[in-house]
Amino acid sequence: MARIAIDMDGVMADSTQQYINWYAARYGVQVEKASLLGKPETTGFPLEGVVRQFLYTPGFFRTKPVIPGSQEVIKALQEKHDVFIVSAAMEFPQSLSEKLAWLEDHFPFISWHNIVFCGYKNIVDADYMIDDHIKNLSTFKGEPLLFTAPHNVHVEGYKRVNTWEEVGALLL
Question: Is 7 a known active-site residue?
């Protein structure tokens, strides 16, 4: 039985789609996800800088779309492994309570015992970490799995998983 640490934003919750949705709702401009490929997260929108402000806006973390396949695969992983949701939730004040409520809504089968909110993830001790940011994977002592997101498409040097189906094929 392996211990698996799973990031939320960009891995379970679709941050990029949330940026796109919120930008369209507030500025009336639909940005295509393909236009964000290879650009740093929160950049690539016509009005630079405004998307980062969404991270400080109540409701942003609470209403993110679920990444397809994550619910089914994580539930199956829990049957075979020790699964922990590990999310940085200290930088943005409202994110902690909103992330917890989001998990309760979309992943009710995950116990609070298996949810770790932290600052830096360098304290995480697991066999695998699934994350979309290399800043979290670069110090990880287990096997890092880079979950594909627009901001990391050009990153090399990590084992990459593009979908939850690929995660399931690898770890189930």
Answer: yes
